[in-house]
Amino acid sequence: MTAPETLTAAGWAETALASVLARVSVTARESGPRFPLYAEPDTGAWRTTARGSWTGGFWAGLLWLRALSSGTAEHRAAAADCTGRLRHWVAQDTATRGLVLWYGTSLAAGPGADGAAAALRDEAARACLAAYEPACGLVPWGGAFGGPRLLARADGMPGLVPLLARADGGAAAAYAHLDRHLRLCLSQDPPRPAWRAGPRGTWTAWPEPGPGWSRTAAWLLLAVADGMWCLGADDRLRAAADRLGALRLAPGARLVPPARGDDPSGPVDTSAAAIEAVAALKLAALARTAGDRRAADRLADRGRLMLHRLVTAHLSSAGALLDGCYDADRGLAPRHELIWGDFFLAWGLATLTGLVEPFTM
């Protein structure tokens, strides 16, 4: 295994990012006005959705990364058009609006910022703040995808925390949303990703997703990093970052986690590793700003090592990140290319190469 200190961004990261963004262009031609969701590992054929489901923001984000890399008006127009088609989600009752509307708009805020994307993000921030329920201390998972509405889920955190913080008067709700999820999810070991609200402030563990889900720690790490960035780093958030880091960012942890923690020899989930790599780079940036060079170097090395493993062991010659697992319990797309896996891999590589900063405004 290559030592982390030898993994500079020169060469391998630039080459891999170019390959992933070339795949974006192929996907764009094949998907047309629809949103890609996951692709077959053998053929590369995409399953698509009309409105993007909870993953539409990652497709828009990939198009913005392509536009930032190429600088062409054509690519910028395609990204802006895709982001505009996410407006449907502003009014939907789902905490995944954070995933859709933060990641689908934030990369448009760089040089030559897209005014329409910024306006959509602000509109989404206000809508999410209006959905905040003080009695629960969070924005509920919601009923848009069926099932109980009053759930707390780990995947209802990323994107929603900075989105809430961006709304006027939203910082307190953003912190409460983050804190509620952390207190619930980290109350068990391994962290349990889903909880249902009950009477008089009680919460009961919800079976789906279950303990050992590959993306539990990944989503929590990402949300904590963004929370520390936009809300400030207090002892509670530092402790959560340390616990999650010990679980997934420690030298002895598997670089690519199993899709199910109770089946370590089964399918892996490269999308979880890509999310964790981005979280590691974000936490490294925060540690560097705080003057903790040792922690910053350790976290940056871990992020680079994870990305290098994904690139060398799981990236196809066509630029597709394979071996992602959509839903292991249902056997849905267990070894596939996932649109959010591609996005977080591309974002991590773009961070290493300096195309984007770890945090977006």
Care to give the gist of this entry?
By secondary structure, the chain is mainly alpha-helical.
Describe the 3D structure.
By secondary structure, the chain is mostly helical. The chain has a single domain, classed as Glycosyltransferase, CATH 1.50.10.10. 49% of the residues lie in helices and 6% in strands. The strands form two sheets. The chain has a three-stranded antiparallel sheet with strand order 2-1-6. It has a three-stranded antiparallel sheet with strand order 3-4-5. The N terminus is likely disordered.
List keywords for this structure.
361 residues, mainly alpha, Glycosyltransferase, 3-stranded antiparallel sheet, 6 strands, 6% strand, globular, disordered N terminus, 6hp_glycosidase-like_sf, 6-hairpin_glycosidase_sf, Sugar ABC transporter permease
Task: Set down the secondary structure blueprint.
Elements: H1 12-31, E1 35-39, E2 46-49, H2 56-70, H3 73-84, H4 97-101, H5 115-130, E3 151-153, H6 160-166, H7 171-185, E4 194-197, E5 203-205, H8 216-231, H9 235-248, H10 270-289, H11 293-313, E6 337-338, H12 339-353
Antiparallel strand pairs: 1-2, 1-6, 3-4, 4-5
Helix pairs in contact: 1-2, 1-12, 2-3, 2-12, 5-6, 6-7, 6-8, 7-8, 8-9, 8-10, 10-11, 10-12, 11-12
GO biological process, one term: carbohydrate metabolic process
Protein name: Sugar ABC transporter permease
InterPro entries: 6-hairpin_glycosidase_sf (IPR008928), 6hp_glycosidase-like_sf (IPR012341)
